[in-house]
Amino acid sequence: MKNWLNAFIGSCILLLVACTPNNVQKDEKLADLFKAAGVQGSFCVYDNGTGLFTVHNLSRYKDSAYLPASTADIIIALIGVETGKLTNEQMKMNGDSITANAAFVSSQIPYYQQLARSIGKDTLKRWIDSLHYGNKSQALLVDSFWLNNTLKITADEQLGLVKKLYFGQLPFQKRTHDIVKKMMLQEVNANYKLSYKTGWGFLPNGKSLGWVVGWIEENKHPYFFVLNLEGDKTLDMLTVRKNLLMNILKEQGFLLGKR
User: Fold this and answer.
1) CATH number of the domain to which 77 belongs
2) 257 in a domain, yes or no?
């Protein structure tokens, strides 16, 4: 037990928080929700106010890396704005009728492939290296590195990324942070604001892999989360992924504006 706690504490440097064994708790009820959904995976929510991590499947969360799929649109959009290749969230690509924001929300792969090509391989690689994004694979294909199981990232690294995005701690201008944060916003009501980016890809073994990474704000307080799940290649990922996220958040006491 001591070994994994030490490793986990070390990994939390990415989050710029002081992790101790007392900051990590397991919620066994989450395992039941994954089982009911017919998938396996991991989930973590981080309370920025208390420094508490609530985790399901800790070893998968901190040690297992997977293709980012369309969650990589976060960094592609950030790099695009910073380099001037993406002027704002309403920009349309040549010959495309969809905006950057709409393509981001619905994970329209061709839009972000075109944006990645306009940024260029060398520029993307420099930024990926400086961001320490995932395994920083040297064999990047400019318009598919996030889809082909070349570049891989852990759920822990995903959580660190969205936390830094929220607080403007990435090596980008404030305007760049603000535009991509606006693109992350998916739901707003009287009880909460829910911001996230989804991803859906396929593992080398053919299984379907899904991501939801982001944060929920209640009473102006942010909680950061990462959901990673996998199942059969025929899995209705769009439905299962969203339903599982909302069920987990509800079980954790969110969605009612009382956190």
Assistant:
1) 3.40.710.10
2) no
Establish if 78 belongs to a structural domain. Answer: yes
H/E element holding 47? strand 40-47
Per-residue pLDDT for 239 more than 50?
yes
**178 located within any domain:** yes
- Per-residue pLDDT of 70-121, as tens digits, reads 999 999 999 999 999 999 999 998 777 899 999 999 999 999 999 999 999 9
| Active-site residue, 70 included | yes
Read off the pLDDT of residues 177-213 as tens digits, 9 standing for 90 and up.
999 999 999 999 999 999 999 999 999 999 999 999 9
Task: Identify the pLDDT of residue 96.
Answer: 74
Pairing of strands 24-26, 52-56: parallel
171 phi/psi in degrees, rounded to 5: -80, 55
* 41: amino acid identity, one letter: G
Q: At 184, list the tokens.
A: 């992350």
Q: Is 202 part of a structural domain of the chain?
A: yes
- Count how many domains the chain has: 1
Q: How many other CB atoms are found less than 10 A from the CB of residue 246?
A: 15
CB 99 within 8 A of CB 117: no
Nearest to 66 by CA among 45, 49, 48, 41: 41
**Catalytic choice (11, 42, 64, 70):** 70
Structural domain range at position 137: 2-251
User: Cβ distance 98 to 92 under 8 Å?
Assistant: yes
Whether the model pTM is above 0.85: yes
